[in-house]
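Structure (tokenized):
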């Protein structure tokens, strides 16, 4: 079960955190993994980890916010079976404390970046006679989190794009779903704590861990396992759905 042998997969943001865990697991399951990354160094580290274990991976230096860059990269990759739209950036702020510059920056990566990859990938999925798309959303799109105005806005758009794409390509054998993690322990979280709570990182780490009723953050590999299921033939009846993976955050926090 869950074999990806003979499949070509693209993982955006595959150089770090959740994207790296997805790339490594996909390669273990037999996929040829193409990593689309802003950070050449991170992408190279993931490729090295995969090839050292005998897997197949290729790094592509690419900014998902640039359509020209993305089209060029997907044209090089050619026909593909799986797209994971994972690359994303964080932001802290309320509606009246989010600058126009920050609003545009987050939307450009977290919304336009997903659109750019869908735009470029769908013809390549069609060329492979169908395939699977998994978008990385967040619990921030499902519950009212404080200080996540533009981040939540962007992840809400990711969920809406998921439904739209699932509907439009239903009869072309292209499935599209999203996953919504609560807090996952990645460099994204460490960077967020360092920038926003300098000197209080350990205290805030503990607080964020406890905000999941299960008492801890997720490990990236736990998110990767769900993404593998949704990308495999075993989930062939699932499209147009969002899957919270949240240690009880949404339903058990009262
Ligand atoms: N970590 C969490 O708690 C958490 C929770 C819910 C959702 N998410 C989502 O999961 C995804 C991955 O998060 P993570 O924690 O692994 O983050 P991360 O910061 O560890 O990794 C993100 C990767 O994306 C790359 N990236 C950023 N902007 C890019 C761009 N413009 N073009 C190409 N690559 C780019 C970065 O270089 C980095 O390697 C994001 O979409 C994030 O919003 C994370």
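Design, position by position:
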């Amino acid at each position: 079960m869950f074999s990806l042998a003979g499949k070509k997969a693209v993982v955006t943001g595959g150089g770090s955190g959740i994207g790296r865990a997805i790339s490594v697991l996909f390669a273990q399951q037999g996929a040829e993994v193409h990593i689309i990354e802003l950070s050449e160094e991170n992408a190279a580290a993931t490729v090295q980890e995969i090839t050292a274990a005998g897997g197949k991976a290729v790094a592509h230096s690419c900014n998902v916010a640039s359509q020209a860059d993305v089209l060029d990269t997907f044209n090089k990759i050619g026909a593909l079976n799986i797209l994971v739209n994972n690359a994303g950036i964080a932001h802290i702020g309320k509606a009246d404390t989010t600058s126009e510059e920050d609003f545009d920056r987050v939307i450009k990566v977290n919304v336009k970046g997903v659109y750019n990859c869908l735009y470029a990938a769908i013809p390549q999925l069609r060329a492979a006679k169908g395939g699977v798309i998994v978008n990385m959303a967040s619990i921030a799109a499902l519950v009212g989190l404080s200080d996540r105005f533009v981040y939540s806005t962007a992840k809400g758009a990711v969920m809406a794009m998921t439904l739209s794409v699932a509907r439009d390509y239903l009869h072309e054998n292209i499935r599209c779903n999203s996953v919504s993690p609560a807090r996952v322990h990645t460099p994204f979280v460490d960077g967020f704590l360092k920038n926003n709570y300098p000197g209080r990182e350990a205290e805030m780490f503990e607080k964020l861990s406890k905000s999941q009723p299960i008492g801890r953050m997720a490990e990236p590999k736990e998110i990767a396992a769900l993404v593998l299921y949704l990308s495999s033939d075993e989930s062939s009846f699932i499209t147009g759905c969002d899957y919270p993976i949240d240690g009880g955050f949404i339903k058990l926090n009262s």
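Reviewer-requested clarification: The longest strand covers residues 174-181. Residues 141 and 156 are 5 Å apart (CA to CA).
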